[in-house]
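S.,

Sequence below, as promised.
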Amino acid sequence: MHPHYQRGATRRRLAAAFALPALLALAACDEPVTPGAARAQGSAPPPAVTVLTIERREVPITSTLPGRTSPYRVAEVRPQVGGVLRERLFAEGEEVKAGQPLFQIEPAAFEAEVRRAEAALARAEATARAATSTVARYRTLARVQAVSEQNLENAEAAMRQGEADVISARAALETARIDLAYTRVTSPIDGRTGRASVTPGALVTASQANALVTVTQLDPIYVDVTQPASALLQQRRDVETGALRRDSAADAPATLILEDGSRYAHQGRIQFSEVIVDQGTGSVTLRAVFPNPDQLLLPGMFVRAEVEEGVTDQTLLVPQRAVQRTPRGEPMAFVVNGEGVVEQRILRAGRAIGTDWLVTEGIAPGDRVVIEGLQRIRPGLRVTVTEAPARVASAR
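The prediction came back faster than expected:
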C-alpha cells in the first residue's frame, strides 16, 4: 500500500473515534429533563451550623500584670559594741527566731565593767545612807539649838548629793549590763539567715558599715506588680459609672503564675497602691502580700499576677473560635437572625476572659452567634441551626 494512502486512512479512523462521543453528548442534550433531576441540580440543602445564644453574665474582671517578689522584712545584723568575735552560733541558711543568738563577742571586758559599776553603786549607796543618818541627827540637835542651821543645811545638801550619786551609779550599772548583753548578737526578726561576712577571731566595732549577716523573712512575701496608669484610670471610671463593682481596691484578691508557667497554690491580696506614677514607664506599682509557707517564692523572682479588678454583670462573652478578622483587621462574627439567615457583625472586643472575648459593641443579648460551620457560610445565606448548650460559652 502506498504510504500516503496509509496515513490518510489512519486520520479518518481517528476522526471517527472523536466524533462518536460528541454525537452521543448532543443526543443526551436533546433528552428531556425530569422535574426531580432539575431540583437536584438547581438547589442544595442549607448548610448546618451550630450557634450559641449570647446572654449577659456576671463575671470577675481580672488583669494579668508583671511583677517581682520582694522579702516581707529584711534585717541587717550589726554589732552594737566592739570587740573580738569569739563564736558564730548559727548555720548559714537556717531558719532563726527573733531573739535567737547569732554571734558571741568576747565578754570579759564588759563583765569587768559590770563589776566596777556594781562597786560604784555600792559605794554611792553607803555614802547616801551616811548622809541620811547625819541629817536625821542634825535635825534632832537643831531643835534644841545644839547645831547651827548652817550645819543642818550642809548635811541636807550632802544627803541630796548622795541620793543623786546613787541614781547615777545605778544608771552606769544598767549601761554596763546592756553592753554586756550586746556581746551576744541576736536576730531581730524571724527569718532565714544568709552568708556570714565575718568569722570567729575578727574584730568588730559598734554600728560598723558591714553587716555581720542578713536575716530575711520570707513568709509571708511581697509581690510588687506594675499597672499602666491609663488602665487604673479606666478602672476608676468603670467603678464610678457602675460598670464595675468592687468592695475595695486595696484588698482585691490576686493569684500568681510562676516563671515556668505553673500556678502558685496560695492566693494573696493587694495591700496598697502607690500614689506616684513612674515618669519613665507611666505605670503605678501595686503591692500584694502572699503566704509562703513552703518558701517556694524567693526574693527577686519574676512572676505574673492575676489581679481581680471587680465584678461586672454587663458582660457579653463571645467564644474566641467564633470571632474572625475582616480584610481590614476588624473583629467580626456571624449571627443567625430570626429568619435563619446569616448576618455579619463587626465587633468591638475588649479583653480575653478564658477562651472568650469580652464584647462591648456589635452583639446584643439574645443574638445567636455561629460557633461551628463557619467555613460553609456567608452573609445572606439561609442555614439550618443547631443550638449549643450554654456551658460551651466559656471553658475556663
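The chain has four domains: 48-59+314-393, 62-72+218-312, 79-106+184-210, 107-182.

Coffee later?
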